[in-house]
Design a protein that fits this description.
Helix content is about 60%, strand content about 15%. It is an alpha/beta fold. Helix 1 packs across helix 10, helix 3 packs across helix 4 and helix 3 packs across helix 9. About 35% of the residues are buried.
């Protein structure tokens, strides 16, 4: 996990220098503490860097807050007729418990910035394609309003856990918008709560995948080897 975190940071470090928001964060990164939140389907990784050229300050903290994991928990803890509003509230309690454990494990500090990876946050950018999503700045107020509005929309249309489960099964066959909206409805809260805990008013979206970091690590190794041979 530490190696994956290091490559994820390296990907952002090299691909953000030509973007205004990313460059502002990466400039003088050797003297900045930067949080990475990497949310997948199975888990959410919390990573803290002090200098993006070095491994993380702490081993990455892995939380069972992936969007698929949260969706499964919503079904397991409910029945067909459970009101969707109640189910979301219980999921929020689960997220709160897991984040409180994280906050106890990681010493509080004044973070200089946050980089966010994952489907929920890239969808929240409102941009299509990783190229356009990369280095978009999203403020906490916008994300909070986005979460509230999406949940209200889903609750008004589907009302119960059984209804949303059936609709999602159909949606995933036809690849419509519901799947993306539901991913945001489950996933955005973790980003918002971490920003709130560290007093951050915005985060920067990273559209780069792990393979970018592996590529740049290979590039660095070639350059360092070449310079060493020349020296």
């Amino acid at each position: 996990k530490e190696e994956e975190a290091t490559y994820t940071a390296k990907a952002f470090r090299y691909t953000s220098i030509n973007h205004y928001n990313g460059k502002n964060l990466v400039d003088n990164h050797q003297n900045k503490k930067i949080i990475f939140i990497d949310q997948g389907g199975g888990s959410t990784e919390f990573i803290l860097f002090n200098n993006l050229d070095n491994p993380p300050l702490y081993p990455p903290k892995s939380l069972n807050l992936g969007t698929t994991t949260l969706e499964n928990a919503l079904y397991i803890n409910s029945n067909y007729d459970t009101p969707l509003e109640k189910a979301f509230s219980e999921i929020d309690n689960e997220i709160d418990k897991k984040l409180q454990t994280l906050f106890k494990d990681v010493k509080k500090f004044k973070a200089d910035g946050c980089v966010a990876v994952g489907t929920a946050i890239t969808k929240a950018s409102g941009k299509k394609g990783n190229r356009n999503q990369h280095c978009v700045s999203l403020n906490k107020e916008y994300l909070s309003e986005k979460l509230i509005s999406i949940r209200k929309k889903i609750i008004a249309e589907y009302m119960t856990v059984g209804n949303i489960k059936t609709a999602l099964e159909e949606d995933r066959r036809s690849k419509n918008r519901l799947d993306s909206d539901f991913t945001m409805a489950l996933g955005l809260k973790a980003y918002i709560d971490i920003m709130d805990f560290y007093g951050l008013d915005h985060l920067i979206v990273s559209g780069t995948g792990l393979w970018y970091g592996i590529f740049y690590k290979g590039y660095e190794d070639i350059v360092l080897h070449r310079d060493h041979m020349v020296g």
